[in-house]
Amino acid sequence: MRSALAKVARWLRHWPRKKILIWGCASLALLLVAVVGTGYLMLRHLNANLQQDDISGLLGDQPVNTHPQAENIMVIGSDSRQGLSKEYGSGLVTDQSDTLMVIHIPADRQWAEVMSIPRDSWVNIPACEMGDGQLSAPTQGKINEAYAIGNLDGNNTKLGVACTVKTVEQETGIYINHFIVVNFTGFEDMVSALGGVYECNPTAINDPNSGLHLAAGTHLLTPAQALGYVRARYTIGDGSDLERIGRQQAFMSSLVSRVKGELLDPVAIYNFLDATTKALTIDTQLGGITGLYNLGQSLRSIPSSKIAFFTVPNYPRGEVVPSDTANVLWTEPEDGRIFASFRNDEPASSTLFGSTSSTTAVSSQLVTPSATATSPAADRSTAAAQPTVSASPSGTASSVAIQDRTANQSICAG
């Protein structure tokens, strides 16, 4: 066993840092490739840890997958509070998606983009199967409610994921190839296996809800502190979900960097991978450990300077519905162009990938999702009392204006 684990350690030590950072905010699935070839029993154990669900029969009509060699992977952070202390909230009767991202991996594997979707995004949620076998009625609400609807009557992760995928596909026209769900309890175990994870906060943090108190600067966080760091919202910065998204992206990059730069003990590596696989639920089409390995192998040549993180451009829904002080709407036409870039297998971050020849196509046209009768924007604006998009406050810019950063940039660097 120790000989096999030593192979894992050597594999990670000699894999350049820039190549491992791509999964900085993607629940560390790529690290699972390190165990392939190190021993059948270890591989079988880690594969058995993974929960694998088939949601293909629950999605109905999906957008046309016009670039089958590209991959769009949805990452969901499960808002289950089971096993957590009351500081992280209580009283939930169903799981919700606390974090929602879509990772686009192009067919040529030369770059990648990670798009975070605010949990407070106001969208149309389609009819979804619930735990009692009934279909929910189509509704409007914040996007994380889709996961909760699917989880009604039994906290069924499979149904929650299916409803979230249906909602995102309907609203964006993006075909989702795979999904990965990470639960909070497993997150703490992953940090514990590493002996903590470093983070850098530009300003002091004092969050009485989680008991997190940090001076400005770099810190080695304990598992409880790490969970508080990625979960805290109302007492940090402007209290928005958008600011929390930025911290989550930065922390997950640090988490992977900690594995590569600090963790040399092969037993500790195994413990980390064991905790990681126990924390994940993936789709059966991804192919378990072997599928993760194959995907990881195809990503190894992407430099961290070609991996962009950004949040869906948005503005307060209160500008349209004054009584709503909690939710956000997606900004058009910027978001439509970003979604089109994902569908067309082109980079949305024109400022980052300006040298890519296909970028001008992203800025010049908005492609209507082919699997829906009308565009997501038109669907969301049908209810006059609750419109979710309108003329964007930013006007009609000729290019996609998004705030992004690359995987090799520190959150403290500004």
Would you kindly provide a written description of the structure presented here, covering whatever features stand out?
The structure is a single chain. By secondary structure, this protein is of the alpha+beta class. 33% of the residues lie in helices and 18% in strands. It contains 13 helices and 16 strands. The chain has helices spanning 2-13, 17-20, 40-49, 145-150, 157-172, 184-193, 223-231, 241-262, 266-279, 288-299, 334-343, 359-364, 376-380, and strands spanning 51-53, 71-78, 97-105, 112-116, 122-125, 139-142, 178-183, 197-201, 205-207, 212-214, 217-221, 280-283, 307-311, 314-316, 328-330, 404-406. The strands form five sheets. The chain has an eight-stranded mixed sheet, with helices on both faces. Strands 5-6 form a two-stranded antiparallel sheet. It has a two-stranded antiparallel ribbon with strand order 8-11. A hairpin with a 4-residue loop joins strand 9 (205-207) and strand 10 (212-214). The longest helix has 22 residues, at 241-262. The chain is globular and about 50 Å long. The termini are far apart.
